[in-house]
Amino acid sequence: MTPDAQGADDVVDVEAYTKADKKPPIGKKYRVKIGDEPFVFDHHLVTGKDLLVKAGKTPVECHSLYQKFKGCDFEKISLSETVDLSKPGIEHFVVKAPEVFHYTVDGEPETTDEKSLTPTQILEAAGVEPVTDYYLVLVNADGSQVSYKDKLNEPIEMKCPGSKFISVYKSATEVA
Length: 176
Known about the structure:
Order of helices and strands: EHEEEHEEEEEEEHEEEEH
Shape: elongated
Number of domains: 2
Distance between the termini: 75 Å
Strand content: 35-45%
Radius of gyration: 23 Å
Mean pLDDT: 92
Largest sheet: 5 strands, mixed
Number of strands: 15
Strand order of the largest sheet: 10-9-15-12-13
CATH topology of the largest domain: Ubiquitin-like (UB roll)
Helix content: 10-25%
Low-confidence stretches: 4-8
CATH architecture of the largest domain: Roll
């Protein structure tokens, strides 16, 4: 349906208005694509978090949201950022994997922009010294544990929500 053919009670298709080089009207419902799926919002002002929740992308901290404008590159939208769906030129939104991963080591928060780290890198980033006297243990959500005692250079995929690690001191005979 073209923008001019929409009735007063219809939902505004933001992408159709962009293709027609028209500004969407205020005071309507707004249909936008997030990924390949269309979603309808009741107001022209929404947050990045609102967009991710509506698209079922939870926990929202585990996703990065981008807005595509006509003739432009993608623009990152933060969770708290307000997006005006009546702004001309919006084509659609894209959801990608997070850019930063959060995790803890011995209860202390850490972050990385790497998609994987080795146990040695995780211990070093947490300031555990000397690294050679410790090994890393992953504590799963169900309480089970995965030891990286003999796997100091095995890549560990960073996950969201963040992983929980503990450092374990090797016995005196193992350190020597």
